[in-house]
Fold these 4 entries.
Entry 1:
Amino acid sequence: MQSMAATAASSSSSSVSRGWAAVRRCPSPSLALRHAAFSSSASCCRVAGAGAPVLPLGIRGGRLLLPCPLLTEGGKNGPSTRRMTVAAAAAAASPSAEGGGKPAIPRTVQLGAMILVWYLLNIYFNIYNKLILKAVPFPYTITTFQFASGSFFITLMWLLNLHPKPRLSLQQYAKILPLAIIHVMGNAFTNMSLGKVAVSFTHTIKAMEPFFSVLLSALFLGQAPSLLILGSLVPVVGGVVLASMTEVSFNWIGFWSAMASNVTNQSRNVFSKKLLADKEETLDDINLFSIMTVMSFLLSVPLMLYVEGIKFSPSYLQSTGVNLQELCLKAAIAGTCFHFYQQVSYSLLARISPVTHSVANSVKRVAVIVSSVIFFRTPISPINAFGTALALVGVFLYSQLKKAKPKTKTA
């Protein structure tokens, strides 16, 4: 066997030598090169056919027989043969060829994980935010601090190149400015409501977001809902009315602030979706939310100074007997949860419709209401509990109808 291998190797080497000798003798270099390549390839085929050791190609640690040009393309050794050889080697080297490729994460799993993170961050934000507002009843100051926390994380993201910095024109900034104004109003109204009434009641009122989402989507996106979808909103409205009539902590300022936050937040979602769908715009969901947050911080500072003045100061807090260190820790946790739950919310908005986003947001109310009732031990009457449950059932029915009829009529 060793003598046979040596003979084959010697034959292959002599064939290659004869091929390159032909190159030097031939007057046409291109013709000579083709002749040399043919001789070398034919020799390789003879070696493989003779049972000699095959040429190692380093593919997955194994060896591969080189294809013989005489057995492909009718014996023609043209460019197509070389392309087929390269393609075969690449296919053998790919992970999928050996079953080593990892399947992509399904879109449903990705959305489910994002929604879960969104819910958890929102629960922690509402609990800590309520604790802060009970100690420091200044909703505009708290709103400004939350936007400042978000601006800090956004600046850090851009400085560390975790996400490409946007390059916008003045016209694009002008389009985002109304969204920033609405964003400031929506969060200020939410903090005003949380400061006046219980967390569970605020979120019971905010369960009416699908109603405002359908209304605004019909007005600005041309999406007309069916009669069944409109009918599913009746228990939502009825449940909110029952819960409001029997709420122990009912307050008109808290009630109307929560209703105003519904209108402003849904307006922001609808207009943001319209801006993200504009093919002429180069903004993604992360940069849109980031710029809007920074602009909201700049807008909220003069509003805070005009309405509440500088009250969130160490001297004032010490005079009220508040533990400054504990308050700052809670404010930092609330601000961090506020930014990232809003960021996840906007990332979801770029992947789903405004109405579906509103449904997921309403289902989130269940988790927030239950957790806040348990944490704060909020007293709830049977009628109040029935009204809250009726509103949430209406939201669930609404979401099921949206899944059954995903396409809406366009006006």
Entry 2:
Amino acid sequence: MADAKDDGVVAEAQIAQPLGRWPILSYGVGHMLNDITSACWFTYLLLFLQQIGLAPRDAAIVMLSGQVADGLMTILAGEMIDRFGRFKLWHIGGSVLVGVSFSSVFGGCLLCTILGTDSYLVRTVGYSIFAAVFNIGWAATQVSHMSMVNCMTLNPTSRLALASCRNASTMVANLGLYAIALAVFAVIKAKECSDIVLQYRWIAYLSIFIGCCFLVVFHIGTKEPTLKSESNCKKKARISWGYWFRKTLYYQVALLYMLARLITNVSQSLIAFYVTRDLRMNEYSKAIIPAIIFCCSFVVSIVLQEIKWNSRRLKSLLTVGATLWVISGVAVFVLPSQMHNLMYPLAMVIGAANALVMVTTVGLESALVGEDLNGCAFVYGSLSFLDKISCGIALFVLESYEDTMSCGETRGLNTVSRYGTGLIPSCLAVLSLVVTSTLRLQDAAPRAAALEAPLLV
């Protein structure tokens, strides 16, 4: 009996050992296809649809249809993964849907081609259908990838390193997208509607190709997680939804994650409008400014990978990130077009704030799950559901006022893009600060070590 107990202690210590550099890096690039297509989706979809003739409200309907499908799929994927596992199978299936549907949205109206008509209604319906398919695949890939973190290791520092590496890869994907966009915009000049479609078609095809290259690296370098199914890892029955709903921390983390995603996604979706219409910057600014934001996010994310995390640092850095967003959001809202060059340093601050907010909120998700591995997919799925639905509704409401708030030759402070890029994220950051102050986190056992090897060395 004593030997069995000792074996259990040894086994538990082994699975809590820190991960090495390669497992973390190969896992981190597994979301690159999702990330590079998502960057294009949130930065250029509304702009693309309006440039080819859809009204702002109908463009928002296309976005909303995708977000609703995404939100519902996160719940389904979370439940199915908790029941049957097979993380990598869900990941590859979702990736296939992402690649096919994304090229159909930005490659032109496929439904219009099939039906032989280019009517306004058919275009709206066609783009909405493929937006929904894209987001279904995106959700399956996202939930499976995020759920793997807690089933790859019990070491909290390694879990944060996985989340931070994933976030850093997101920044690389975004930078890659904006580099592609900048090159395409420079080579293909948009003189008419067909040129605009051609621009985004090339952006879509190149994005999918690059994302698939990293997808291969992920599937080669990352093994199917077995932690939750091993007999020496406290195997339990699948955790019911009610278990999480009875936890106060679940609601706190859910609200913080939703606010973080609203801050980043809403501002990202409207920044192209803001820099070109409100600040009257040149055409290249809609690629350069987002690129600066994500470049700074990437640098901060890399630095965060080297930190040995505890609850105090998690709360402190989340507070710092939210505070930076409060300051930069207000500055963006009041920035006059004559001083548009100040947008460059503001973009750097926004980038750092985004990294701090996203890495810490994903870390809070991991802290919420802890060692309750048989319910981890539901947690990630349900929180993503709140994120997708809230983002879709927020963008739909904002775009519904686009005609009345953006008309006229002179654009003052009362524009949708100014509110969505500056003031609204700033207010959401204030709410994040309030919720963060109520968090009560417990640190993991002291046996949890730092990374096996720093990623920067």
Entry 3:
Amino acid sequence: MMLQSQATSTDLRPCKNGQYRTLMAILGGALALLILTTIPLSFPLLNYSLLLLKTSLESPASAASAAFRPQIFSSGNLSLLSALPCDLAIGDWIPNSNPKAALPYTNDSCWAIHDHLNCLKYGRPDGGFLRWRWRPEGCELPSFNPAQFLELMRHKAFAFVGDNIARNHVQSLICLLSKLEYPIDVSPSRDEHFKKWKYMSYNFTMAFLWTTHLVKSKELTTGGVFNLYLDEYDEAWTSQIAGFDYLMISSGQWFLHPMFYYENGQVIGCHDCFLNNVTELGIYHGYRKAFRTAFKAILNSESYKGITYLRTFSPSHFENGLWNQGGNCLRTEPFKSKDTALEGMNLELYMTQMEEFRRAEREGRKKGFKLRLLDTTQAMWLRPDGHPSKYGHWPQGNENLYNDCIHWCLPGPIDIWSDFLLHMLKMEGIRSAQERVQFAHQTELNQR
């Protein structure tokens, strides 16, 4: 009887003045609100990646670029799994599932490869070093998609700042993009240290700005010895970053040379100078101060407001001697991560970079600058097989050229850097949104 009484008092039949319809409408609205709230929170990365590319694809474009748009969505690179957060830095090189698959480019198909990186042209007998792919722990990294990259770079400008290794990266990227388009050289001069190219169909400008040490430096007449002005900007590149949307800085191998360190115009010490009246400060002191000054130049710039990437240290792989003592790199397969680890100088240089990056990142956040870490060190440490060795040099008579275990063959392992970069570009919207939420939360806590 009690159950019957309760049912009578809460009768939901439609004949009861529309109460049933009203309550169902309320419940339906609540359910819809719940769905609309939880789905974006559950899958923000996928939503943003698709929205980002959809927005860029709906903008006016040339017929040349439109022909390649279907592959952006048919490639599978925008699946939910490929958009999930992923630590790119840690993983292993694994054999390609299809070892006979065509390479993204070859030394015959791309004109951008300099001869000292053109391992296949100059007789490297093995091609196995080209048949590996990087698999980060816990996720899959999509291979580079030139159509996606160029769409994301539409109406943008990207400058790569650094030394020979940075130029190595730029040549790799040009070759990867050559499947769609070659750029036009729009460099302001013939100086090979400062180059600028334009992808006309996308209104995308890419530049290479040369610097050996990121700060002002001067090579002494003795050769191979540098004066490093640790507190002074290298204006050769800092004066040219205005208007760029993206900047990637890097430096490393040049710091192994003997150096005299200057601050406030005075010698404060050195690295490998072996002079009794000059304090030996070591390589890491100069490395730290150089990155600190480079980041200062960027964060104090009034004309550059773009996103800055630090590409981490690229290790060399000389074995059985130094570069000038007969050392070489003759391995034909990658290391396994479980069998080796960064140590010694490589680890110390990497950690120094990381510390200065985190310091600059905190400072940049206060000023509204975005700094990002393109962490390639571990992946490249595992690739002793990817250097030119003796196969990347011009065969010029009896000229004695050292074995190159510093730069990277093209095509080769360095192509993975563009895979990393594209993944990070696609994640940028979510990363920025997360930072805004964190900043707002921290501001609220500080105001309490």
Entry 4:
Amino acid sequence: MADSATEIPSILEESVKETVKNVTDKPPTSIEGLAIAYLSLVIMAILPIFFGSFRSVKYLKEQKESGQSHETMSNKDALMFPLIASCALFGLYVFFQFFSKEYINLLLTGYFFFLGVLALSHLLSPIISFMVPASVPNVPYHIHFTRGERDGRTDIVNYKFTSYDVICLIISLCLGAWYLFKKHWIANNLFGIAFAINGVELLHLNNVVTGCILLCGLFLYDIFWVFGTNVMVTVAKSFEAPIKLVFPQDLLVNGFNASNFAMLGLGDIVVPGIFIALLLRFDKSLKRGSEFYFRATFSAYILGLLATILVMHIFKHAQPALLYLVPACLGTPLTLALLRGDINALFNYEDQPAIPETAASDSKSKKTE
């Protein structure tokens, strides 16, 4: 009887400990916390698309003025992209199954630290140029390292930069060090937003057909890897790199040290973003003084993102965002162009018109002569 009396308090103590452990394993959230988290994700998703689209217009104009031809995605590239992405995703999944994710993430952290510093420097360059007083001189520098002499000389390093670029690099290195050592979610988001803006600015779809092929291919890719397998969700949760935007759902409870995150992959921002940027460049080519197709598709993207969040909470399951974003981003401009009589102009528009084969052969023969 005495033994049973002493066992009861110990059983109760173990039960209390187990209850406390279950509660603390998953940080508490609230309706307000969820609303703040997903509203923040939506804002962080639309800002890179908006600013990246206008930067892409400026970038294309600078390339044309300098006489340089920029790299664009072909139809073949668009067809192959989902297959290459699938191989990369499954390869990461296999690595995480057989190798320690700590070592893999350590390697990837160093890689994305380097890329993130470059992306942040590129993003900060116009901001620093605007903020630094005119009294501070912007001194140009040129690092030129060659091999050989005279006609046989080849460039190894030929890099031009200014003192403002050095300021950008120092700021980016400080933010990168913060991410490298703390892995804080704010530092992760700074890198992620920089990647997204640079991606929308520099990755150009040459025409709408290529965009349709790419979006439809990734539409099927996203559905298969989210609904068909657990590969996408497993990699997203194991992959500690700024390839996703995160925001804590328990921010109101735990502050900036929160740990229960809502997340959105950068692919769900950059892929629709480069198509929306193409529509802005199409609007500029029409010279009507409006951004009709860009604004309409941009609004459709926001609605598609909100629909993704709503369905995810109704069915309590991770959703492939492109399942909702692709129909919104493709259906809106195509329907509006059909109604407004711009469908032919939309499909005929090209950032970089293809040179006819006869003209290309003539120019080649002239160069040879």
